[in-house]
Amino acid sequence: MSWQDAFEAQVRSCQNLGSPFTAMLLEGFARFGLPAGPIGARIATWPGDISSNGASVPLRLAGALHGLVLEGVDADLGALYPPHPLPEPERLWQAACAAIARHEAYLDQRLNDAPQTNEVARASALILGADALAAHLDLPLVLSELGASAGLNLNFDRFHLKASNGDFGPTDSAVVLTPEWRSPAPAPHGFRVTDRQGVDLSPRDPVAERLRLLSFIWPDQRARFQRISAALDIAADHPPHVVQADAIDWLEQRLSQDFAGQAHLVYHTVAWQYFPAAAQARGEALLAEAGARATEEAPLARLAMEADGQGPGAKLVLTLWPEGRQHDLGRFDFHGRWIDWTSPVF
Questions:
Q1: How far apart are CA 141 and CA 46, in angstroms?
Q2: What is the pLDDT of residue 1?
Q3: Taking a C-beta distance cutoff of 8 angstroms, is the pair 154, 137 a contact?
Q4: Residue-level pLDDT at 118
Q5: Which letter, b or e, does each residue of 324-335 get, where b requires 16 or more Cβ atoms within 10 Å of its Cβ?
Q6: What is the torsional sign of CA 9, 123, 223, 235?
Q7: Domain regions of the chain by residue span
Q8: Is domain 120-341 in CATH 3.40.50, yes or no?
Q9: pLDDT at 144
């Protein structure tokens, strides 16, 4: 895929996911060209897949430019960013190219960072899956997240999810999830977390790297920005434990631990699909082996929210051992805007 194709594909994704500003920003590069100089040359000659299926270079660039604005180091560029009115496309492109020329070292460093949005609205899927699991097992939960980044979604039990049959989570939470329900909502049961850990190849500090994490939020999505800001505040008060390691190596170690009297919930949201095929195969084998050792007193569960090539959104699947049965829990928007929930039949 050429760099132009990658940018155009990301433009369509931004349009579909409700960010006309980011779509316009990236469309400017596809339409008018990359900036002259080393940054444009680096993007044009980037090795491998630069699309959202690979290195996500368009979103790396968008995040870097947003970082300049959030850090207050480029007022000229910031004058065209939300909440200011949407500018003319060519004017935005010219301002972006000028900012890149002024801050080449910053852009070059930021292009090394893959987007890590920590989309906490995906926590609605985690809350519902964990609640259904706890209602069935009547056991406290041990959490293990693969691809945890800054670990914001390790705190999903501290978020509040609005639903028609009763809300989930603490009512005083600063993170309030208000998705569109496209299905009947289940009645809440409640669950308790006794231990939580995550893993990431490049974990982020939710305090020291707050602005970097926020830079990957599309600047015209203010509700999303505020929601993740609130989740960062919670993470500052309840620091998540995220280990820097290969996810499958860490999973092997985590699955070897004894969690008697607790249900071990391994979960991942839009992360597994980016693992290499060999890593996925090894992870599946490790989960199956651990599942064979699971008991009614120490069950193992896997909650997976991933793209499946079907759409709309991502599919949510819960696998529970020792029986090893898969439960289809419906579909969820990638950014948590809507829920199409299917209650499991255990």
A1: 43
A2: 85
A3: no
A4: 78
A5: eeebebbbbbbb
A6: negative
A7: 3-110, 120-341
A8: yes
A9: 98
- Other C-beta atoms closer than 10 Å to the C-beta of 269 total 25
Q: CA neighbours within 13 Å on the CB side: how many for 137?
A: 28
Q: How confident is the model at residue 139 (pLDDT cuts 50, 70, 90)?
A: very high
Q: Residue 6 burial (CB < 10 Å; 0-12/13-18/19+)?
A: buried
Question: 319 CB contacts (<8 Å, ≥6 apart)?
Answer: 287, 291, 301, 302, 304, 325, 326, 327
30 Cβ neighbours under 8 A, 6+ residues apart: 4, 7, 8, 11
Residues contacting 51, CB < 8 A, separation 6+:
1, 5, 6, 9, 10, 57, 58
Residues 42, 111: contact at Cβ < 8 Å? Answer: yes
Segment 168-173 long-range contacts (CB within 8 Å, at least 24 positions apart): 168/127, 168/128, 168/131, 169/127, 173/234
**How do 338-341 and 325-332 pair as beta strands?**
antiparallel
Quote the pLDDT of residue 39: 98
Quote the CA–CA distance of 320 and 131 in Å, as a whole number.
Answer: 14
Count of C-beta atoms within a 10 Å radius of residue 284:
13
Write out the DSSP string of 125-152. HHHHHHHHHHHHH---EEEEEES-TT-G
Average pLDDT rounded to a whole number, residues 26-34: 97
Task: Name which of 218, 271, 279 is nearest 250 in CA terms.
Answer: 279
The closest alpha carbon to 17, from 314, 330, 274, 308, belongs to 314
96-132 residue pLDDT tens: 999 999 999 999 999 998 888 778 999 999 999 999 9
Residue 13 CA to its chain's centroid (Å): 15
Work out the angle at residue 238's Cα, subtended by the Cα atoms of residues 233 and 242, and round it to the nearest 5 degrees: 105
Within 10 A of 9 (CB to CB), how many other CB atoms are there? Answer: 17
The interaxial angle of helices 57-70 and 3-16, nearest 10 deg, is 60
Instruction: Please give the pLDDT value at position 273.
Output: 87
Which token pair is 214? Answer: 């926020």
Helical packing angle, 20-32 and 3-16, nearest 10°:
160
Query: Quick one: which H or E segment has residue 35?
Result: none
